[in-house]
Amino acid sequence: MAETVGDVMTKNVVALPGSTALRDAARRMRDEGIGDVLVVEGENLLGIVTDRDITIRAVAESRPPDATTLGDIGSRDLICVSPGDSIDQAVSAMREARVRRLPVVEGGRAVGTVSLGDLARAKDPDSVLADISDAPPNN
Question: Considering the domain boundaries, does residue 110 fall inside one?
Answer without folding.
Answer: yes
